[in-house]
Each structure stands twice: as C-alpha cells, then as structure tokens.
Amino acid sequence: MIRLNKGERILFFGDSITHGGRLQSMDGNHIIGHGYQSIIASKLGYENIENMPKFINKGVSGDSISQMYSRLYSDVIVNKPDIISILAGINDVGKGMGMPYKMTTDKFIKVYQLMIDDIKALLKDTKIIICEPFYLELNCFDEPYANTPYVLCEEYFKPCYIPEDKERMVAMRKEITYMQQELKKFAQKNGCIYVPLQEEFLKLSEKVPPEYLVWDTVHPTIVGHEVIARKWLEVCEKELNI
After folding, report:
1. pLDDT band at 147, cuts 50/70/90?
2. Which of helix, strand or coil describes residue 128?
3. Which terminus of the chain, N or C, has less C-beta within 10 A?
C-alpha cells in the first residue's frame, strides 16, 4: 500500500497513453481518462480515502518531450503536484525515424533534463516518477484486431489500424531499446523513481499474442494498461514508502 498524506496531489504527465480519452471538463466519469492512470488513481484514492488525495491527468495525444516541456508550467507547475508521474518517448522515436540512429534519444534526454531541472527548481519537494516507454512488434497483419481483448460487435465501426511494416518495426525497436537504456541511467542520475515496463510486456507476450497487450505496437489495450498500473504500484510502493 502506498501511503499518501492529506490532500496530496498526483499528476500524470505524458502523451496519448496517459491521455486515455480524458475530457477537459468536470465530468467525473471521464476527467481522469481511461487507462493505467485511472487504475492507479482509483486504487490509491480508495486505500487513502480518509486523506482524500487528488489526481490530475495532463496527458496530451501526440506529444513529444519538447511539446511536453513547452506546457510544463501551465499543466504541471501551476498544479503543484506532490508526485508527478511521467511517461514519454514513443512519439519522439516515431517522429525521429528519419534522423541518424541515436540522435533522437540524445535530443530526447537533453530536453528531459531541462524539464526535470525546472521541476526540481520550482517544486522542490515533488517526487518524480519516470516510466519506461515500451514497444511490441506485432504478428497479426491480415486481421489486426483478431487478438485484442475486444470483440468488434458493431458493424459500422471499421478497423482504423493499419499495421506497420516489419522493417519499420525492427527500426523502432532498435531506437526504443537505446532510449530505454539511456533513460534508466538518466533517472538514476537525477534521483527519480524508475518504472521499467518493456520487460513486463515481453514476458506476457510469451504467453499471449502481443496484440492482446498493445493494439498498434504502442497503445495498450485494457490488459496492457493493467500491466502498466501493476508495475507502477509495485515499484512505487517500495520507493515512495521509504
């Protein structure tokens, strides 16, 4: 169990994986979004119900680390979180595939450092959690939704996902592996809590097709979001309760 103090604020910061379809309104059913952040928030809120912790989702679909940094003050600093959880990186890899190998990650780390430096300078007591970006190569090209947890029960909802070609998937995995290695070292250097996720997805993809965990190589299914939430809670229970 992660113990939270009275009124503590946890803020989730990231791209579409964190966004989770959140609504920018006070609709209590959808304001936090639907995904790992919702699973974590509901569990921590229930377990610390007497202290009434608050949860904020500031994920924005499609964001790279530079875009996240540009909204750091308006979306993070002004909300004064006690804990900030960051999941970013996959968009940087996707958008940087035309760049020389490793250049994408090197620039990613430089901007990430600026962001962490600002958080530490302006929110001195805030605990920072860095989640590992992840990527799974898919096997199902002819029927991309055949192995997801969902049944396509509405005929007018046509599959919108076009699988990536295998050559691109191999290139993405190569870059994301380098990013994961550098980000872990970066988190340790900056005294941040690091949540490794790639290995969790790889272990489970030995039991089920990867499409059951991520439906397009990067976006989790409902099962994939549970994978993230469980690992987040496992790591943070040890690190935040010290």
Report:
1. confident
2. strand
3. C
